[in-house]
Amino acid sequence: MTVPGAGLYVHLPYCASRCGYCAFVVTTDGSSRDRYLSAVEREASLLEAEAAGSAFDSVYLGGGTPSLLPAGAVRSLLAGLRSRCRIGENAEVTLEANPEDVTRDAVAAWRDAGVNRVSVGVQSLADTELSAVGRRHDAAKARAALESLARSGLAVSGDLILGLPEQTPESFHASVAGLCDSGVGHVSVYLLEADKSKTIEEDRRRRPERYPSDDLQAELWGEMSADLATRGFDHYEISNWARPGREARHNRKYWSRTPTLGLGVSAHELWAGRRRANVANLESYLGQVEAGRRPLAFDLPVTPEEAAREEIFLGLRVAEGVAAARIETFVTADGDVSLWNDYETWLAEGVLERRGDRVRFTERGFLISNVVLSRFV
Ligand SMILES: C[S@@+](CC[C@H](N)C(=O)[O-])C[C@H]1O[C@@H](n2cnc3c(N)ncnc32)[C@H](O)[C@@H]1O
Ligand code: SF4
Asked: DSSP per residue over 198-252, as a string?
């Protein structure tokens, strides 16, 4: 298959410690790191024939904590990928970084290695919240990291979480303001997924007073969105805001169903009409790649029915929404009368809106998007 603007994701699972809320596939045991980096390159070779002819215009080094790698390892990893996949000179190359790893030297080395965008896991700019979830950085360290990245001229994104223990309306709005004032061009705000972590789930059940309630989170989300708009950020996807021209090219591919390949433990991909995922177990990943096999947990064709569903539930995530004809054909053909009724209600109540020949979430609708999207999954 030949794809002109494909994406390449690489999962780097190593972390210095595990944060209380995190459910990504990570390890705090770095002893296999060099073996892992060789395995990722070997896996890229296994894909070489499939990727041949395609041009990649985005690479995303995600984790885990890619910024924990020595700078030389980032350089040789990117060089190894470039020698096996056609990665354009102007490709967006993002590295996820934890604030404590962002030093002047590290930033310079990432840039020399070909990284041109850094996504920083700020999470909050309040020390009480950061220590409540076991982050290794404090607010001062996050601010220093953002400042040094701003000076570097690299594109910078910052992640925040709404719903953290000890978070108040004041502290949340101050985190948003502080992040924007640091000069980032892109902001991601995630609602804390408490059910992804046993520790957080149990703590929230035992001590709910430590957490902003769901109603309060909804209120804060709306206020934040309005605040970001006045600061010049466009709300282009449910959890993502960007200054003009600063949208994440790679992430956009997931919502537009543009083909992406995935390397590394637990990595997912959409390629040649198939959805595939690598195994989530590190030893199994290493063993299979070293034996010369793709370490796939599943490899399934996307049926036309699934493709139609994906187009709707991924397309509705972005501000442009989806073609009205697409969603209406689907809702009608589905045969589920309640889905049609719900669709009409969402439009009538201003959860969804029709703009020309597109249907999209309203700003208020984004808040309850989970309910709507789950009907199409
Ligand atoms: C791959 S993760 C971690 C990146 C980086 N290692 C860090 O910790 O900053 C990317 C982002 O997902 C978000 N995230 C992780 N777990 C989450 C959870 N349980 N609920 C909501 N957001 C979460 C965080 O904002 C995080 O920055
Ligand atoms: S949030 Fe980041 S640093 Fe913390 S465990 Fe998850 S991937 Fe690692």
From this structure: HHHHHHHHH-GGGS--HHHHHHHHHHHHHHHHHTT-EEEETTEEE-TT-S-HHHH
Cβ atoms 143, 125 nearer than 8 A: yes
Q: Which of 275, 328, 334, 332 is nearest to 305 (CA)?
A: 334
Q: Which of 18, 137, 190 to mutate to test ligand 2, by most ligand atoms within 8 A of the CB atom?
A: 18
State how far the Cα of 34 lies from the Cα of 23, in Å rounded to an integer.
Answer: 23
Which residue's alpha carbon is nearest to atom 17 within ligand 1?
Answer: 22
pLDDT < 50 regions, the chain: none
Quote the DSSP letter at residue 136: S
Rounded to the nearest angstrom, the gap between the alpha carbon of residue 172 and the centroid of all alpha carbons in its chain is 21
How does pLDDT run across 249-303, given as a tens digit for each residue? 999 999 999 999 999 999 999 999 999 999 999 999 999 999 999 999 999 999 9
The CA-based dihedral angle spanning residues 123, 129, 132, 136, taken in that order and rounded to the nearest 10 degrees: 50
Q: Which residues, judged by CB distance below 6 Å to any ligand atom, belong to the binding site of ligand 2?
A: 15, 18-19, 22, 24, 26, 63-65, 98, 121
Pocket test for ligand 2, best of 22, 60, 136, 282 (most atoms within 8 A of CB): 22
Is pTM beyond 0.90? Reply is yes
Q: Is 161 helix (H, G, I), strand (E, B) or coil?
A: strand
Question: What is the DSSP-derived secondary structure letter of residue 70?
Answer: -
